[in-house]
Amino acid sequence: MIAVKLGIIAILSYLLGSLNFGVILSNTVKKEDVRDSGSGNAGTTNMMRTYGKTLGLLTIAGDILKVMVAIWIAFKIMDVEELKVTLDNASDYPQVVLKSFAGLFAVLGHIFPCFFKFKGGKGVATSGGMVIMIDWRIALILIIIFALTILITKYVSLGSILMAVFYPVFIGIFYKDIILVLIATVFTIIVVVAHRENVKRLINHTENKIGQKK
After folding, report:
1. What is the count of structural domains for the chain?
2. Residue 135 burial (CB count, 10 A)
3. Is residue 210, in this structure, part of any structural domain at all?
4. Angstrom distance (rounded) from CA 134 to CA 108
5. Which of 14, 46, 91, 183 sits a CA distance of 20 to 30 A from 123?
6. Residue 72: which domain range?
7. 201: closest CA among 162, 155, 159?
């Protein structure tokens, strides 16, 4: 029964994650696909660069909200005590494990949306929504790292990558739980891989800075 519940949570979280608000809003409001413009990405940064702050902010709000809904549904489907027994005391934080599990599939849905030919965003906003649900303290620290990185370097992508890299570090500091650190590391790998082209441009010093026109 536990496997069935986890399977349902995974599927529903993935489907919710696949509701990519960048694509939805650009199609609905502008009758265009944001992936045909700018960087070709369906995330917040490309939405702002292509259509302005309003649609960009609506995109990030929608992409954060969907993972929160996925986590809420996960707790409606599965009892935390049931998961704790299944984990057999391997983790002291079964509620965080469940949040991370639902969040993982929501992020995968965002990056590889089944509704939009598996071409979505880079998972930063969706991952951020999950971190907010897990621990507001870690979320606040990561936001500060993101903001300082952009302030100093003007690279949004570098700020996103650093947030992903530091996430498992702070999970380890705050929770000291190997399962949570491993799950957090998976998130880091997913987000960094999604930013692989940005990494290449950062290395070659060809990455666009915030406010810079192509």
Report:
1. 1
2. 17
3. no
4. 18
5. 91
6. 2-203
7. 155
